[in-house]
Amino acid sequence: MNTQHLGPLVALLALLPAVPHAAALAATPSPSPLEGTAWVLERLGQRQPQNGTTVTLRFEAGRVAGSDGCNRFGAPVTVRGKGLQVSAQGLSTKMACPPAVMRQAEAFQTALTSSRGFRLDGERLRLLSADGRPLLVLVAQTQRLVGSTWRVAGFNNGRQALVSPILGTTLSLRVVKADQLAGSAGCNRFTAPVRLEGTRLRIGTPVATKKRCAGAGVMEQEQQFLVALPTAASLRLEGETLELRRADGAIALSLRRVPGP
Q1: Rounded CA gap, 67 and 254, in Å?
Q2: Which residue in 234, 254, 235, 238 sits closest to 66, CA to CA?
Q3: C-alpha span between 91 and 223 (Å, rounded)
Q4: Which of 90, 141, 206, 215 could bridge to 192 as Cys pair (CB 3.0-4.6 Å)?
């Protein structure tokens, strides 16, 4: 090869701007400020939620999920900058509720899928219409558990079934400290060590008193509950509901908040 003409070519190439590596050309998208956040409805348009209903919304892994006050729902969501759009092709449970609650649920779902933007203002999230009107106003869901008390609505009986407590019995759970649980197993009191790390948790073996109680199935229920408790590996707090789930995703315990300090 004749190399005597390469000098001018090398000089010319040196004057050209460097071409970025192909991987650098693909801009890394900024994480959405909504990812991993949880909210409770404060206003639907200009109206407050129906008494006795809690409407929730959580952003997680490119989806929204929560309760519309009657049914559980989930749907894909796209968030770009201050733009937001929830797919109308979501899924929902099909439980029937009183007419007023059903109307509120429908209005919430319509507002959610009509939203085209959002605004974060401290502890409030506003979902906005295309012309900037607030369709939904939500407040941040508190994640504080220490000091809270919960009543068990359902527990895994070890036979792949979530069952309600026996009528006339109360199963409860209180987060006494960041590392200690206590409560009632329906007959005996118990305590258990716990380790909380965000939405992850690890519950140690419960220690219970030794009282015997009468009533069909009461002692069997207690044993099933105390076995289910340390199987919990993660938690999800939405409004007044707390779910503890096993590592395989199955619900270990479903609980409702007991009002009070």
Answers
A1: 14
A2: 238
A3: 35
A4: 206
Structure token digits, residue 9: 């070519």
d(CA 148, CA 134): 32
CB burial readout 20-53, b (16+ within 10 A) else e: eeeeeeeeeeeebebeebbbbbebbeeeebbeeb
Report pLDDT digits (tens) over 175-205: 999 999 999 999 999 999 999 988 899 999 9
Q: Strand, helix or coil at 141?
A: coil
DSSP one-letter code for 49: P
246 against 159, higher pLDDT: 246
Give the C-alpha separation, 256 to 54, whole Å. Answer: 12
Residue located via tokens 């999230």: 125
Residue 165 DSSP label: P
Angstrom distances, CA of residue 189 to CA of 105, 150, 174, 225, 248: 39, 14, 11, 12, 28
- The C-alpha angle 106, 107, 108, rounded to 5 degrees, equals 90
What is the C-alpha separation between 168 and 157, in angstroms, rounded?
Answer: 18
Cβ contacts of 15 within 8 Å, gap of 6 or more:
none
Segment holding 229, helix H or strand E: none
Task: Look up tokens 């999800």; give the residue.
Answer: 236
pLDDT attached to residue 102? 96
pTM, to two decimals: 0.69
